[in-house]
Amino acid sequence: VEASVPEGQRAAWKKHSAREFKTKEEFENEAVRHIETTLARSLFNCDEAAAYAGTALAFRDRLVIEWNKTQQRQTFADQKRVYYLSLEFLMGRALDNAMLNVGLKDVAKEGLADLGFRMEDIISQERDAALGNGGLGRLAACFLDSLASLNYPAWGYALRYRYGIFKQEIVDGYQVEVPDYWLDFNPWEFPRHDVTVDINFYGSVSQYVDDDGKQRTVWDNGEIVTAVAYDAPIPGYGTTTTNNLRLWSSKASHGEFDFTKFNSGEYEQSVADQQRAETISAVLYPNDSLERGKELRLKQQYFWCAASLFDIVRRFKKSKKPWKDFANQVAIQLNDTHPTLAIPELQRILVDLEGLGWDEAWTIVQATFGYTNHTVLPEALEKWSVPLIQHLLPRHLQIIYEINSQFLQYVEKSFPKEKDILGRVSIIEESQPKMVRMAYLAVIGSHKVNGVAELHSDLIKTTIFKDFVKIYGPDKFTNVTNGITPRRWLHQANPKLSELIASKLGGYEYLRDLTLLHKLEAFVDDKDFRKDFQAIKYANKVRLAQYILEHNGVKVNPAALFDVQVKRIHEYKRQQLNIFGVIHRYLEIKAMSAEQKKKVQPRVSIFGGKAAPGYWMAKTVIHLVNQVGKVINADKEVGDLLKVVFLEDYNVSKAEIIVPGSDISEHISTAGTEASGTSNMKFVLNGGLVIGTCDGANIEITREVGEENIFLFGNLAEDVEDLREAHHKQGFELDPLLKRVFETIRSGTFGDAGQFSALVDSIVDHGDYYLVSDDFKSYIDTQNLIDQSYAKQEEWVTKTILSVARMGFFSSDRCIDEYAEMIWNIEPLKPETNGA
Ligand code: 475
Question: pTM for this structure?
Answer without folding.
Answer: 0.97
